[in-house]
Amino acid sequence: MPDPEIPVVSITDMGMVRAVQVRGGAVEVTFTPTFSGCPALHTIRAGIEEAVRGLGAAEVEVRSTLTPPWTTDWIAEDARERLREYGIAPPAPAGDTGLIQLTPETTRCPRCASFDVRLTASFGPTLCKRLYVCNACQEPFEGFKSV
């Protein structure tokens, strides 16, 4: 199922599908949303159910979980490239140190690959993205926050 907000990647590419259990004709899918307040939560749940029923499952249960919390490290490597081609700067690895980031992230323009970018808004059209402008090519773009 495509991500409802970014059609070039699937929820599996984004690392949101955490478990799939099949018992006879019953299927249970567990997913983790990118943010606890994700506005697409209902859409994702309904899309998973529709996709699994389309494969012939008689019973479908879709569960969301916030533990462990989703991290940008779960995004597949090939999905990062598709994000870049779509015009969204993929996130840098968040790592697992548990420490608060004190230095700015290194963000690269998805259009010209320049690191000479400036942050214009900490919150973009979704909670997981920021807005930037590239100083080299002057193009505005969205970039994923590393979480």
UniProtKB/TrEMBL annotation:
The species this protein was found in: Deinococcus gobiensis (strain DSM 21396 / JCM 16679 / CGMCC 1.7299 / I-0)
Record domain MIP18 family-like: where: 2-61
Protein name: Phenylacetate-CoA oxygenase, PaaD subunit
A Pfam family reported for this protein in Swiss-Prot or TrEMBL: Zn_ribbon_PaaD
Domain PaaD zinc beta ribbon, residue spans: 104-145
Superkingdom of source: Bacteria
PANTHER family: 1,2-PHENYLACETYL-COA EPOXIDASE, SUBUNIT D-RELATED, FE-S PROTEIN MATURATION AUXILIARY FACTOR YITW
InterPro entries xref list: Fe-S_Maturation_MIP18, FSCA_dom_sf, MIP18-like, PaaD-like, Zn_ribbon_PaaD
